[in-house]
Prior knowledge:
The structure holds two protein chains of two kinds. Chain A has helices spanning 15-31, 87-104, 138-154, 229-245, 260-272, 277-280, 350-355, 393-398, 449-454, 501-504; strands spanning 36-52, 55-73, 76-82, 122-126, 160-176, 181-198, 205-209, 252-258, 310-313, 334-339, 342-343, 365-366, 375-376, 380-383, 402-407, 412-414, 420-423, 427-432, 435-440, 443-448, 456-459, 466-475, 480-488, 491-500. By secondary structure, chain A is an alpha+beta fold. Chain B is α+β, with helices and mostly antiparallel strands.
Amino acid sequence: MPGLDTPRAPGALxxxxxxxxxxxxxxxxARLGATDASIRIEEVRSQVVSLRDAALExxxxxxxxxxxxxxxxxxxxxxxATVEVTPGAAARLARDAVGAARAVAAARRRSxxxxxxxxxxxxxxxxxxxxxxxxxxxxxKVALLEEWSRRLLRAEGVDHASASVRCVSEHKHYADLxxxxxxxxxxxxxxxxxxxxxxxxxAGFESMRTLAPPVxxxxxxxxxxxxxxxxxxxxxxxxxxAKLAAPSIEPGRYDLVVDPTNLWLTIHESxxxxxxxxxxxxxxxxxxGTSFATPDRLGSLRYGSKVMHVTGDRTAEHGLATVAIDxxxxxxxxxxxxxxxxxxxxQLDRSIAAAxxxxxxxxxxxxxxxxxxxxxxxxxxxxQPAPSEGxxxxxxxxxxxxxxxILGDKSWSIDMQRYNFQFTGQRFFRIEHGRLTGxxxxxxxxxxxTDFWGSMEAVGGRSTYxxxxxxxxxxxxxxxxAPVSHGAPSVLVRGVNVLxxxxxxGR
Amino acid sequence: xxxxxxxxxxxxxxxxxxAAASGAGCIVLVEDRSGADVRFATNTVTTNGxxxxxxxxxxxxxxxxGGFAAGVASRAGVVDPAELARAxxxxxxxxxxxxxxxxLPGGVVDPHFGDEPPTTDLDVLGGVLGALxxxxxxAERVGTVLAGFAxxxxxxxxxxxxxxxxxxxxxxxxTFELVGRADGGSRSAWVGRGTVDFADVDVEEVEAALxxxxxxxxxxxxxDHGRYEVVLPPGAVADLMTYLYGExxxxxxxxxxxxxxxxxxxxxxxxxxxxxxxxxYSDPATPSLECVxxxxxxxxxxxxxxxxxxxxxxxTAWLRGGVLAQLFYPRARAxxxxxxxxxxxxxxxxxLPGATGTTDDLVAQTERGLLLECLWYIxxxxxxxxxxxxxxxxxxxxxxxxxVRGAVNNFRFNESPVDLLExxxxxxxxxxxLGREFNEWLPxxxxxxxxxxxxxxxxVSPAS
Lengths: 507, 464
C-alpha cells in the first residue's frame, strides 16, 4: 500500500488478476446477449502537494482502483462500475450493465450503434518518461517546492508565494469482445508557482504565475527536461514588480501577438470543443453546449485565415491526450480539423461516428476513471506552425505598430456554441512601433471565434511552437475531467477588442 | 437491481486503521458512494451508469520538532486499512510541524455508526424514465428537442478518530435537468430541480415550465450590449452566490489576496457589503437541504484543516443583515487571529428577512428590464473585486410593463457577486433551487429572485 514516502512498483494489479476479471466480465456480458462489451480496469494514483509561503498546505496521495463495464444490449447502452476487482465483481457488473440497458429502454426512441473497430490484439504501451512522478518521495517534492518558494520570498516585492505540483500515474487495462486487450501506463505532472505583490497604498494585489505547461513527462521535467524552471523563477519577481507598477490598459482595438502559453487555451475553447461532433449533434445540449461548427458546414465553413491549419491527434509525444488505444478500443490517430482556414474534420467516438454515418471513430473516447462511462473527449488539438522556417516571435512583434504581446493563461470563458469568448493572461507587454515597451495590466480580450481566427495574419515558425495544455478539461454528466495538450506557435492577430477588466467591474 | 458487494463494513475499516496508527492521533474517513444516472439528448436516452465506490482516507499525526505533523493517505477501492494507516503514519513521522495542528475533536458517537450504507440504483429514476419516453414523443410532435440529466447518489460518510469520535451521515442527492430546444436552437430553455429521492420530481410539470418559456421565445428581440435592469431567478443567483462562497477563505483575506481583504490589512468582516439586509448562511439542519453536520475533508486547504475533521457544523451566517459576518477559518488559525473558527458547510441559503414574492412577481413589477434564466461559464476575471465573466444561456427575456415581450439574444456579462449584493434593490422569497453551472459542486441551495438595476452586459453573444 502506498504511503507518501513509500514508492511502489507501478501497476500493482497483477496480470492474472486483470485477466481473470476481464474474462469473467466479458463472458458474462456475451452470455447475456450483449452485442458489444468492453471492460476497463484502472488504477490511477494522483498526488497534490501545495505550499503556501513555503509552508505545506495541502498533501494528497490518492489511488483509485476500479472497474467499469459497458455493454450494448438490444440497442441500448448500459454501464456499471465498482471498486472491487475480482472475477465475481466483473460478472456482477455485466449483469448490472445489462440491467441498466434494459432499464433505460423505456425512454429510448432510437437504437444506439457503435462504429466498428477491428481487434488490435494485445497492446502494451507506456508514455515516454524516465521517472514516474508519483514514485518520487513526498519529502523530495516538498523540499523542492520549499526551496523554490524561499528563493522567491527573498526577492524584493514578493509578498506571497504559492507552489504546487500535481502528479498522476494512470494504469488502464482495456479489453473488449472484438479481442483488443490493451495495457497502458501514462504519467503526467503540472508544477505551478504563483507570486503575489500587495498594493502598498489601499487594497488590491497583482499576481504572476509560471508559464510552464503541464506535460506527459516524468519527474525529470522539474530537472530541466523540457522547461528551464530556474530561469523562469529567476525572472518572476521583477516581472511581478513591473506588472504591479504598470499602467492600466486603455480599452480599444489592438493587434495581438499571442504566445503559445496563452493561445493554447483559446485553441482549446474555440476550436477544440467546437469541433467535437457530439456537441454539434446536440448530445451535450443540456450541459457543455453545442457548436456553431455543424456537420453541414464541413468543407464550407471558413473558420479562419488561410494560414490556419489545426490538427487533432492522440499521438503527440508528451501530449496529455496521447494514448495507443482509446477507451473504446480504437487505435490512436492524427487528423485534420481545419485546413487552409476551412473546417474539414471533427473529433469522434464510436457512437457519434455511427450517428453521423461514419465508418470509423477517430479515437477520441476517454473516461476519467473506471467508474465513469467513456464519452467523446478532446484529442490534442494543435495549431500548426508555419510550414517553412516561419517568423520568430520577435519578427511577429516587429510587424505591429500598436499592440500587445500576451503570455500565460488566466481567466477564460466562452459561450455554449463557442462563438463569444473572453480571455485574460499572465503578462501583457505593450508593442509600439514594433518594439516591446513595458507591461500593462487589467487586460481582457474578447472576440467571436471566426472573427478572431479570420484576423490571424501570421503564424510563427517551428521555433515558436510549444505543447501546452491542461489537466482539468470538464465535460459530461456526471462531470468528467480530462487532461489534454494543445500545441501552438506564436501568432499575430489584427484588430482584437481589448477590454479593461477594472473598468468592466465599474472601477 | 445491483447485487451486494464484498466490501467489509465501514466501521471495521475505521477500527482497523485506528488500531494500526499508533502515533499522536489518527482520523479515518470512509466514504461509501452508490449512484445511478441517466443522460438524454436528441429526444432519446444516451448514456447511463450505476456504480458503487468506496474511498478511505487516513490522517495520521506524529509529534515532530516544533509541533505536530500530519500524514494523509487515501485510496478508493478495496483497502487494507492497517497498511494505509501505516503509510500515513510514516509520512507524518517524516514530515514537518504544520501550523494548522489542533487537538482532535472527540466525544460524539452516532448511534447508527455501524449500520450498512444504503444504496441506490436506476429504480429511483424509474418514474422519470417512464415519463421521459412520453415527453420525447410529445416534443418530437411539436419540433422540440429535449436533452438533460437525472442523477441520484447516496453517500455514507463514516468518520472515526483516535479520540473516540464516531460520526456517520447518509447524504441522498438528486438532480433533474431538462433542456428544450426548438427552431434549430434559436428558442431554448432549461429547468432544473434538486431533490432527495425523486418523489417530488414531476416530469410533466418541468415540461410545462419549459413549454411556457419556449412560447415566450416565439417573439425575438435583438438588443445591444449595455447595462440593463435584470431580474435574476433563484437558480442564477445560486451560481453567483456559490462562487462567492467558494472565495470565503479567511486566510486568503488576511493575506490580502481576496475580495474580502481590507485595505491596509485584515479582512472586511464587520463591513457592510449589501445595501439590503441580506442573510447568507449555511445550516446542516435546513429542511430539504439537510447535509453532513460534521467536517469531513481529505486534505487541508486555505478553507479547512484535516485536524478539524469531525468538528460539529452548525448554522453559520456568512453575511448577517448585509454585513460580512464570518469567513472560513480552521481552528488553529482562528485561535491565532482571535476570530471564530468556521468550516465550509455543504449547503447555502441567501435570504432577505420578510421578503415575499416569486420571480413572476418581480417580473410583474418591472417596467422595462431583462429576465435571465441561466448563467453559464462563470469564471473569475479580477480576484481583487471578484469580477466574474460569463454568459446568459437558455433564456433571456425582455420584460415591459410587467409582461414578457419575447426572447432576447444572449450576452456576455462582467459582474462581481459582491457588487451585485450591494446594488440589488429587491429580493423575493427564498426557495430551494438549483444552479445551472455549479450544481454538481453545491446542489443544496435556497435563493431568492433578485432585481439589479444596472447589470453589465459586456457584449452580445450570437450563441443560442
